Amino acid sequence: MANDFLRKVVVVDDEPLIRTLIADKLSGLGFEAHSASGAIEAKKLVRQHDPDALIVDLDLGNGPNGIELITSLEAVNPSLAFVLLTNFAPAQWELKVAKNLKYVKKSEVLDFSTLVAALEEALQGRARKTDNQSNSFGSQVSKLTKNQLQVLSMIAKGKTNQEISQELDVSLGAIEQTIKRIYAALELDARAFANRRVTAAQMYSQTMGTRGFA
Known about the structure:
The chain is of the alpha/beta class. The protein has helices at 16-28, 39-49, 66-76, 92-95, 112-141, 146-156, 161-168, 172-185, 196-208; strands at 8-12, 32-36, 53-57, 81-86, 101-105. 54% of the residues lie in helices and 12% in strands. Residues 129-134 and 210-214 have low confidence and may be disordered.
């Protein structure tokens, strides 16, 4: 059984030897490490294990590359930390696709002190931002009623409105109205927040400590 107190990292690299070496080294340093060969497998592991960070190779072979993977995960959970492995120094725009992103040249991967230092730096940035966000979100989430918190917790777990309606045995219309009131209490203006459902779930998760996917 996984230890919930260990920091969790997913290593994403299409080269089996590299990802196995990195995952084994991290496990030896006290991390809970999981490995994936590409973006699709990585997303499954993120949903299953709720990691603190990902180490991602830029070139992942067929399918989405490392930048595309990081961008998609950042959109769902901006508190994640990332280390990008690349053969060349990344462009400035690539370093801005995630808030907590560091990079390490692929040629330096086997110098684990360099890799771990970058990982720790990314994790420290994540921790500071998560703490600040949790404090600011807490006052807004505290405005919600017990029923609204229950509905929001189910949203954070990825449940649809229909699933919430069935599980709570109330009408779909009632759930939709509750969600509208949740958005209002959290001050999520539709004009300012492109996806209020995701933002609301993130606010709940970062306040209550259980991240979810909407």
